[in-house]
Amino acid sequence: MLLPKKLEAYFLNDQRIEIYIPEEQAILDKYRNNKDDAYWAQVWPAAIGLCLFLEQYTYFIRNKQILELAAGLGLPGLYTASLAQQVTITDKEPLSKVFVQQSALHLGLKNVITKTLNWKDALQEPLPELVLLSDVNYEPAVFEELKQVLLLYLTQKVPVIISTPQRLVAREFIMELMPYSSLQWNCIVPLHNKKTGVSIFVLEREALL
Predict the structure, then answer these.
(1) Are 149 and 48 contacting, i.e. CB atoms less than 8 angstroms apart?
(2) I want to staple 90 with a disulfide (CB 3.0 to 4.6 A). Which of 57, 73, 117, 176 is the partner?
(3) CA–CA separation, 42 vs 60, rounded Å?
(4) Dist CA 165 CA 53 (whole Å)
(5) How far is CA 146 from CA 74, 114, 150, in A?
(6) Residue from 163, 135, 38, 150 nearest 96 by CA
(7) Domains of the chain with CATH codes
């Protein structure tokens, strides 16, 4: 089932990026009985925070092969595509792929690959040079599973950049990853008349050495 869509503009300092998002009422109707499955269908402050970080630290993405996991509407992946060699944007929700494809076409991006992919299966894909995630650590039941995926990338010497709102439930998960953190960056993201504190962590195996 295709959902009605609209273009939405997001402002990253002096830059403007326009992507497709689902109509709000269509999402409310489709996910009336399972609202948790609708998280993919909007842009969250952590995604904007990740873009702001990458705008400042472009050397992480320039000419790289990049993988975004649990991407939802894929704003960070789409943003990085203008500098990266290739970006693969993935989410377990098949509708996410449709919206990201349409956004990439609208933006004229020819180096974006979209896939329906659960992060549990991500390591079956060719190893990227960098993994991006934003606002994925909101459900404690999956923290251990997610941590193991990230650690497997780190053991393969693939850096991971994770962006998270500063929520209490995520504190323990983040603290367990801190030994791998080579850089932490914080910002305030204004979105929908609300300001959200966002933290970005660059995780690297070399941080342990």
Answers:
(1) no
(2) 117
(3) 25
(4) 14
(5) 19, 21, 6
(6) 38
(7) 44-208 (3.40.50.150)
Q: How far apart are CA 186 and CA 166, in angstroms?
A: 9
Global pTM reads 0.95
> Tokens at residue 11, please?
């402002």
Structure tokens at 8: 């939405």
Q: Where are the alpha helices (DSSP H) in 57-205?
A: 75-80, 94-106, 143-155, 171-177
The answer to whether 208 touches 180, Cβ cutoff 8 Å, is yes
| Cα–Cα distance, 191 to 188 (Å, whole number) | 10
Q: Which of 149, 144, 170, 159 is nearest to 208 (CA)?
A: 159
Q: How far apart are CA 38 and CA 22, in angstroms?
A: 10
What is the full per-residue pLDDT of the chain (209 aa) written as tens digits? 578 899 999 999 888 999 999 998 888 888 887 777 788 999 999 999 999 999 999 999 999 999 999 999 999 999 999 999 999 999 999 999 999 999 999 999 999 999 999 998 998 889 999 999 999 988 888 889 999 999 999 999 999 999 999 887 788 889 999 999 999 999 999 998 899 999 999 999 876 65
